[in-house]
Amino acid sequence: MGIDGAQGWFQVTPDLTTYGKIIGAGMPVGAYGGKREIMETVSPVGPVYQAGTLSGNPVAMAAGITQLTILKENPQIYQHINHLGVILRDGFQSILEEAGLPFTVNGIGSLNCLFFTKQSVNDYTSAKQQTLLCMPNTFNICYITVFILLLLNLKQCLFPTLTQNKKSILYYPLQTTFSQ
User: DSSP letter string over 55-106?
Assistant: First the structure.
């Protein structure tokens, strides 16, 4: 997406925000932050105690600072990865349409997601419906089929990385037909 994450993408200022492994260069770490009145409820100022096994892990913090510095100094990295995300999303859509499978592909920037439904998925309620609309056996068959399709065609996962280029994520014509 970008150095500012979803907040920058959607141009919002949240009351409370969370950060995952990006702040530790992929290592297990997370953080949260927010408006003063919320953060002052956390110890040592407030009554809410927060701690964790990996809190402030020096290796994760050093890796995270290095990665975030590189990303901030090189915004073209996000442009490149977001462009690959669109190519990947279009490839998924083409493969699934050609195979006639009941899927919806959503995404923004480099983030992509497959849903087991042909219905539009645009909120939590519609996302929950995907498992209700598929019979358990169909769900498993669909999931396995998509996994095989991805191995045969994309040889990649849902998130492009900096080390990839357009050629490495382009899909190949479907060579096997699958029946539903």
Answer: TT-HHHHHHHHHHHHHHHH-THHHHHHHHHHHHHHHHHHHHHHHHT---EEE
